């Protein structure tokens, strides 16, 4: 290779022996920045071919946590038994000489008392390699592996810390569980640098409630098929629901296959992480690639464990915030709404009316306040009972809501008294049309407990700014007009009146 020829000058001064030349090139190479392991191997191969008839060489990196050997550099065609031969060095003492087996030699790569890998050489004259050459050769590979491993670890820690910190900051600000699940899907894809990621959430019975995905062309629609199905149908869910992370290098041969979610996402490999709460599994994160299988590392497992724990906390926290928000909203609703009809109460009406009057004053608009009192309600309440009276009030509320415009306010003030606030463009003509519509709808019979009930309503109208310029004055005018309408009508028919000048 051109790299070897450019670095061969140091070896030339040591003589024509290829092993001496190899040592010289290694010394020269050590003064440069840490290269890749492949660069070091490419440097050595020409000398080893000449010195020992080298035909192939592989550098394996040892994962200290799993004990697995991973190819990190290679020249020549691999053999079927390379990994087995390389692994034989671990049967020997740490300081033993290299293992020579036929045309293969396995050299343990150690530094600082720690084994970091194995150099496997294949050739026809490996026995010619001198110990004083193999020792520095092995040390150089070990040093390179250790340096690169340290850099990988630094990058991993930096990336993982950044991913978890960002997830925590954003997750703790999520408005609800669904937002938190979406953030988890994004964080998983970014954290593992995968093409796709998804998060499913389940109820206590294991039924899929929601699904969020990242990187899928069809978006969430692809995995929406899972909604309403039992997560227990998926073998991978059976694996992770007890809190265990599952990493599958090849979905086609994985023991947890078939996995509905992995298949829907067309993943060649995947990482599945449970989301746990105090009550058990509440969901699962899955991410992976659809292009090709992936060899998951011990670092990936560490990140998976962290995302699993952090994700569960974020979902729990989001759930508590969501419940708290719902509780506050319910308390607010109860404080500003009538419990029987669900309509805004007097407090809500006052707030909305004062705001409507203020805005109308700023925009030179008109508003109207109408008070309604039911005719014949007491008779229904006394003869049919309070339950029938409550049912009647609920039906009245629905008819009133159907008689006004969007943005207008229908409120129950108490008993059988209601208020209607027309919040915009409410001149006398508009108010009269709405009042007549209300009276007409109230004259129609109501079905209560299988019987027809007939009532009516009396409506009083006060206009801003024609009749009054503040809420209290509008209320007094509408109240006076309502009683005038009540006196002017007989029976249950009802009618409406506008406030008189000078009331």
Model description:
The protein has 503 residues and is of the alpha+beta class. It folds into 3 domains: 2-152, Beta-Lactamase (2-Layer Sandwich), CATH 3.30.450; 172-324, 2-Layer Sandwich (Beta-Lactamase), CATH 3.30.450.40; 346-498, Alpha-Beta Plaits, CATH 3.30.70.270. It contains 15 helices and 17 strands. It has helices spanning 2-6, 9-12, 18-30, 37-52, 82-87, 131-171, 177-192, 235-240, 260-264, 298-336, 346-363, 377-384, 386-403, 428-443, 471-488, and strands spanning 54-62, 69-75, 99-101, 104-111, 114-123, 196-202, 208-214, 246-248, 269-277, 280-289, 367-375, 409-414, 417-422, 446-448, 451-453, 456-464, 494-498. The strands form 4 sheets. A 5-stranded antiparallel β-sheet has the order 2-1-5-4-3. Strands 7-6-10-9-8 form a 5-stranded antiparallel β-sheet. Strands 12-13-11-16-17 form a 5-stranded mixed β-sheet, with helices on both faces. The longest helix has 41 residues, at 131-171. The protein starts with a helix and ends in a 5-residue tail after the last strand. Residues 1-14 have low confidence and may be disordered.
Name a few traits of the molecule.
Alpha-Beta Plaits, 3 domains, Beta-Lactamase, 17 strands, 503 residues, disordered N terminus, rod-shaped, alpha+beta, 5-stranded antiparallel sheet
């Amino acid at each position: 290779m051109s790299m070897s020829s450019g670095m061969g000058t140091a070896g030339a001064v040591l003589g024509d022996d290829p092993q001496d030349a190899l040592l010289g090139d290694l010394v020269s190479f050590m003064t440069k920045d840490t290269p890749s392991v492949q660069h070091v191997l490419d440097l050595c191969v020409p000398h080893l071919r000449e010195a020992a008839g080298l035909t192939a060489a592989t550098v394996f990196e040892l994962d200290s946590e799993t004990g697995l050997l991973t190819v990190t550099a290679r020249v020549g065609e691999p053999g079927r038994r390379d990994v087995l031969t390389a692994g034989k060095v671990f049967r020997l003492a740490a300081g033993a000489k290299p293992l020579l087996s036929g045309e293969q030699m396995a050299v343990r790569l150690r530094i600082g008392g720690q084994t970091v890998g194995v150099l496997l050489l294949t050739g026809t004259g490996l026995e010619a390699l001198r110990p004083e050459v193999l020792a520095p050769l092995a040390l150089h590979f070990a040093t390179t592996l250790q340096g690169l491993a340290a850099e990988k670890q630094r990058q991993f820690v930096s990336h993982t810390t950044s991913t978890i910190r960002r997830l925590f900051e954003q997750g703790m600000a999520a408005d609800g569980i669904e937002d938190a699940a979406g953030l988890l899907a994004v964080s998983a894809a970014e954290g593992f640098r995968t093409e796709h990621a998804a998060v499913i959430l389940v109820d206590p019975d294991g039924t899929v409630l929601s699904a969020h995905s990242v990187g899928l062309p069809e978006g969430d629609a692809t995995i929406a098929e899972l909604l309403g199905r039992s997560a227990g149908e998926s073998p991978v869910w059976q694996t992770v629901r007890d809190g265990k992370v599952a990493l599958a290098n090849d979905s086609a041969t994985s023991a947890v296959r078939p996995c509905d979610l992995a298949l829907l996402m067309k993943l060649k490999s995947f990482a599945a992480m449970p989301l746990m709460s105090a009550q058990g599994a509440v969901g699962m994160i899955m991410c992976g690639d659809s292009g090709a299988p992936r060899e998951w590392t011990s670092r990936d497992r560490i990140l998976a464990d962290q995302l699993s724990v952090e994700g569960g906390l974020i979902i729990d926290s989001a759930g508590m915030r969501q419940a708290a928000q719902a509780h506050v909203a319910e308390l607010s609703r109860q404080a500003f709404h009538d419990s029987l009809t669900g309509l805004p109460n007097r407090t809500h009406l006052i707030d909305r009316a004062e705001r409507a009057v203020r805005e109308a004053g700023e925009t030179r608009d008109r508003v109207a306040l109408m008070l309604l009192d039911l005719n014949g309600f007491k008779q229904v309440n006394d003869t049919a009972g309070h339950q029938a009276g409550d049912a009647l009030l609920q039906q009245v509320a629905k008819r009133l809501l159907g008689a006004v415009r969007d943005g207008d306010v229908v409120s129950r003030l108490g008993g059988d008294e209601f208020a209607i606030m027309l919040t915009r463009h409410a001149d006398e003509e508009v108010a009269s049309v709405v009042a007549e519509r209300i009276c007409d709808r109230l004259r129609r019979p109501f079905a209560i407990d299988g019987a027809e009930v007939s009532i009516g309503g009396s409506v009083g109208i006060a206009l801003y700014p024609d009749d009054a310029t503040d809420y209290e004055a509008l209320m007094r005018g509408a109240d006076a007009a309502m009683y005038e309408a009540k006196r002017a009508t007989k029976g249950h028919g009802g009618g409406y009146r506008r406030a008189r000048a000078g009331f």
